Structure formats: structure tokens, C-alpha cells
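Most newcomers find our protein records easier to grasp once they have seen one. Nothing more is needed to start thinking about how sequence determines fold. Here is such a record, shown just as it appears in the course material:
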Amino acid sequence: MWRLDQLGRSLKHLIETISTLDIRQIGFKRLTENIDTTISGGKLIFHIFGALAEFKRNLIREWTQAGLRAARARGRKGGRPKSLTGKKVAMAQELYNDKTNAIADICKTLHISRATLYRYIKIK
């Protein structure tokens, strides 16, 4: 079952979707709210609900951004923690520079993937 805020990315997109269906002579009928876009009253209710869904989505975006700004102000950083810190990066570089070490062994020792190793080392 689709909610109006899932049917379109924005109110404009939602209206375009319904217009495309209308051109193809396909009506949109939402049974739970009794919305029928084949009649004028149904189109009005559809547009009102669509506008409310977009408003809700924008509020959530604003609240999320405000929460992230507040967290940053408190010194919190988002995102995944770094796999390697300063000492481990230096160790990875030393192990890599010593050509007797296999890449697989370095990765196993540091508990990282091959891609992570290559992301952190400086190839000479």
C-alpha cells in the first residue's frame, strides 16, 4: 500500500506522476482515505495531502539538520570511525615499505581489508 509521501519525491513529482497517469486515462484511487483523482473533489484532496506530505518531509529534513548542527556544536562527529589511527597508519606504511611482507599478511595483522590498506598508505 503506497503512502502519498512514498509515491513522489516532491509535490511537483507527485503531480507529474498523477498527470502522466491521467494522460494515459488511468485514475488514482486510494481506498483507505477515499481519494479518487477522477473527480474534482478527489483531485483537491489529493493535492492537499500531497502538500502536507511534502511539508512533513521538509520538517523532518530541517529537524535532522538542526540535530546534526547541535551535535557538532557539542563536539560530536558523525560517520563511521576511522579504521586506522595515527600509530596504525605509520605501522601499515612501515610494513608496506618492507617488501618482505605480503599484503594479505599486513591486512590480517592490522585487521583491515586490502582496500583500506591502499587507502591509507602512500605508495612510493
In short: The beta strands are 29-30, 35-36.
